[in-house]
Amino acid sequence: KMKAFNEKYILKKAMQNRLPNTIVQRYKQPYRAPNIPSFFSDSTPEYVESLLSENSLKDSNYFNPNKVALLLKKIKSGKAISQKDNTALVSVLSTQAWHHHFIDQFESNFKNHHSNDTELHRIS
User: Fold this and answer.
1) CA-to-CA distance for 85 and 39, rounded, in angstroms?
2) 46 and 4, same domain (yes or no)
3) Is 31 exposed, middle or buried (0-12, 13-18, 19+ CB in 10 A)?
4) Cα 53 to Cα 60: distance, rounded to the nearest angstrom
5) Most buried of 13, 53, 61, 119 (most Cβ within 10 A)?
6) For the chain, what is the domain count?
7) Nearest-CA neighbor of 30 among 60, 63, 57, 7?
8) Could you tell me if 46 and 26 lie in one domain?
9) pLDDT tens sequence across 12-25
10) 25: closest CA among 7, 41, 43?
11) Are 102 and 68 contained in the same domain?
């Protein structure tokens, strides 16, 4: 809850006798997602290359692979330094990772599970 622009006012009020004033009175500190240098430095992790590959982008069908390729080219040339570039990369990469873990893996596990059921029914 907020009182004007004092974030978490009720929580701070309730805990003011148990927390140092520096914590109770400090401004909100936003979480910052990892940015380009986290994924593209000396070596790019294999999973990043895989998730951002043309085939992976086509399979998930959320992003235009050509535009992502242009962003990757800009990143690899060292010219991607804006917050917009960071946001774009993190958005694409996190969506692709989400899709991989919760759509692709689910479908794969579902098919494997049910194909085993079919085999069991055939044996019985």
Assistant:
1) 13
2) no
3) exposed
4) 11
5) 53
6) 2
7) 7
8) no
9) 889 999 999 988 88
10) 7
11) yes
Closest CA to 85 of 47, 35, 51, 32: 35
3-state secondary structure of 3: strand
As a whole number of Å, the end-to-end CA separation of the chain is 59
> What are 53's two structure tokens?
């590959």
Segments forming the whole domain that contains residue 23? 1-30
Structure token digits, residue 7: 């974030």
Lookup: tokens for 117: 């059921």
> What 3-state DSSP class applies to 77?
coil
Counting every residue written for the chain, the total comes to 124
Strand partners, 3: 6
Q: Could you report the per-residue pLDDT of 50-65, keeping only the tens digit for each?
A: 999 999 999 999 999 9
Same domain for 20 and 56? no
26 and 65 both lie in a single domain: no
